Amino acid sequence: MWLVAHRGDPRHAPENTLASFRQAIARGARAVEMDVRRTADGVWVVLHDPMPGRATDLPKSIPQVSEALALCRSRRVKAFLDVKQGSYEEELAQIVKRSGWLHQTVLLAGHDASLRRWRKLLPQHPLFRVTGFRVPITRKAIAQAHRMRLTGFVGYRRWVNRQTVDWVHQAGLQIVVWTVRTSSDLKRYARLGVDGMMSEVWPPPSRLI
Fold first, then answer.
1. What mean pLDDT is reported for the chain?
2. Cα–Cα distances in Å, from 205 out to 20, 154, 155, 181, 184?
3. Ramachandran region of residue 32, left (φ > 0), alpha (ψ -120 to 50) or beta?
4. CATH homologous superfamily for 2-208?
5. CA distance 126 to 176
């Protein structure tokens, strides 16, 4: 089971920063999740919310995707990239390939068109659909994910229950739950048999490591 540090370790450092990723790794994380988007002048950065402007207008604490991947490679941890913008998949794919860490990078996206473009670019690569706060994982959505040859879902914790986990697994797909913020929830979702958890609990309970 994957235990993924959600935006690093936001309890001990600002989220989506190199400092946050380092803190998570120091506390035992072997995978980190980061939100990535493109600036107006074409620079890919680690940032959750849209911020119009050029890369030079951004705070210095916001790393470029290439820097975050270099850190993951140097520490030998898997990188989960939650891609917040579509239409530039080929551009981002080249950055990931140049990092030398493609084989340890998992891609996440929330829209059909983007997911299809990623699947065409990287036919065998781990690729997950992210679902939002108000979006349950239905049998129809699971069937569509199977047709699109996705790896599975990253689903909000409200919608992840025993039935959902069973449905996803019956389709030969995987399910990762976001975002888990207590040790008791870590244990609960582990009992449900999820394939991974986006967690803000570092270090996690020893039996889950």
1. 96
2. 20, 22, 22, 12, 9
3. beta
4. Phosphatidylinositol (PI) phosphodiesterase (3.20.20.190)
5. 12
Distance in angstroms (rounded) separating the CA atoms of residues 109 and 26: 28
Distances (CA, A) of 3 to 31, 121, 159, 177: 7, 27, 19, 10
The token duo for 155 is: 């689903």
* Residues 79 and 68: beta-carbon distance below 8 Å: yes
The domain locations on the chain are: 2-208
Q: Would you say 103 and 130 are in contact if contact means Cβ atoms under 8 Å apart?
A: no
In tens, the pLDDT along 14-73 reads 999 999 999 999 999 999 999 999 999 999 999 999 876 888 888 999 999 999 999 999
Three-state secondary structure call for residue 112: helix
**What are phi and psi for residue 86, nearest 5 degrees?**
-95, -175
